[in-house]
Amino acid sequence: MVSDPHQHRNDADGAANVGLEDLVDLGAFPIQDPACGGYAAAVDAARAGLRAEGCAVLGGFVRPEAVARLNGEICERRHAIHYSTQVMNPYFHTALNPDYPADHPVNTFIERSSGFIPGDAWERGCATDVLFRAPEAARFIADCLEIEALHCYDDPLAGLTANICDPGQQFTWHFDTNDFAVTVLVQPADDGGMFEYVPQIRSATDEGFDAIAAVLAGGREQVRTLELRPGDLQIFRGRHSLHRVTRVGARSRPRHAAIFAYTLEPGVIGRVERTRQLFGRVLPEHEKAERQRVRSDPLLD
């Protein structure tokens, strides 16, 4: 059965005033019709990138006029941004670990300076929220990742967010705690703000410390740089691939990226330490989830 791309216009509370066809280039990415050839072609292209390097870029996924709308929503919420500057290692740790040498990646600390708009700043029915919660989008991304289904991340702060890198800021080399991330570049920087990554530099059983140390020391042999454009959807496996956003130029406009977080199971809540680092606060839901958490792998983080 084909989904109606207009279905998001008629929410019970009347909040939504935008439909999927207003947001996504459904000609190039017919995510509302998984039975058509265009859907299969888009999925196949994304799978090829994810299989080869853990990264897929769907150029122009969001329509140009929708990009402007998303950027307007980010600008309207700048008052809600939580900015933080930390000196951290790739695992989001900020303290020296005496179990490792001084020049080890665990004890290599680099500035992270950026801001996040938290999930509770977005009202239901705004364009960014509609795109995040569209079941067609979640199904399409799940197909690209070759998994059965995805659920919107239930974390009240980290489910739907936007990352802001203002002039002079950077999001340094790090790993994600989740297996994959979905982002839309909304506003690129005029100078800097490039997404760089090293594919599959570690695995669930091998931290890859030597290779990571080489990158942190300035090695570029395995580093990939993406030339992302406004409206590009990126699906990225960041659990095992080291990645960063380079420093935005001092006279540049800010870099804006919408972040759509999905999980394999419903009801997932983020970790207390990472939540506090990114948003400056935690909620009772985070404290409760932390007491019940079971780790999925033995990696440092």
Which structural traits does this protein have?
single chain, 301 residues, alpha+beta, Jelly Rolls, 4-stranded antiparallel sheet, 8 helices, globular, disordered N terminus
3D architecture notes:
- With 301 residues, this protein is of the alpha+beta class.
- It has a single domain (8-292), classed as Jelly Rolls (Sandwich).
- Helices cover 26% and strands 20% of the residues.
- It is built from 8 helices and 13 strands.
- It has helices at 20-23, 37-53, 64-76, 127-133, 135-145, 209-216, 272-279, 284-292, and strands at residues 55-58, 82-88, 110-117, 151-152, 160-165, 171-174, 181-187, 195-198, 224-226, 233-236, 242-245, 255-260, 262-263.
- The strands form 3 sheets. It has a 7-stranded antiparallel beta sheet. A 4-stranded antiparallel beta sheet has the order 6-11-8-9, with no helix packed on it. Strands 4-13 form a two-stranded antiparallel sheet.
- Mean pLDDT is 92; it is low at 1-15.
